[in-house]
Every structure is written in C-alpha cells, then in structure tokens.
Design a protein that fits this description.
The protein is mainly beta and about 70 residues long. The chain has a single domain, classed as Phosphorylase Kinase, domain 1, CATH 3.30.200. A hairpin with a 5-residue loop joins strand 2 and strand 3.
Length: about 70
Amino acid sequence: MLFEEDFSIVAPNDILYFAPAGENFNYCAILDDYELGRTLGVGGFGKVISARHKETKKQVAIKFTDV
C-alpha cells in the first residue's frame, strides 16, 4: 500500500516499482538494465547501491529495502 507521503520522496522522472498485491519483487527484470557498483550505505531497512544504466549511462542510486 502506498501513502500520500510516500510520493513526497519520489522526484519527477523517477521510476518507482512496487508490488501492489504483495508479490515477491523480481529484481532481475529491472536490474538487467543496470551495471551495479559499490554499496553507498547500509541501514536498518536495507542498503543503497550505485548503478549505471547500460544504455543511457546515467548514474543512479538504487535502494534495496528489507521488508
């Protein structure tokens, strides 16, 4: 379930993936488009990894959360 305040952390043109029925997330489908880099940070809810889009070469940070 998404709440109104969840959208405050998503910037315009960001890509948001979620599982509305609570199904397991298929990371492979999305991560195939990226080259993963180093871990930027680890916290109580997961970790953030740097990545680069294979086609556009755009640098991004991908957050993996533990549920």
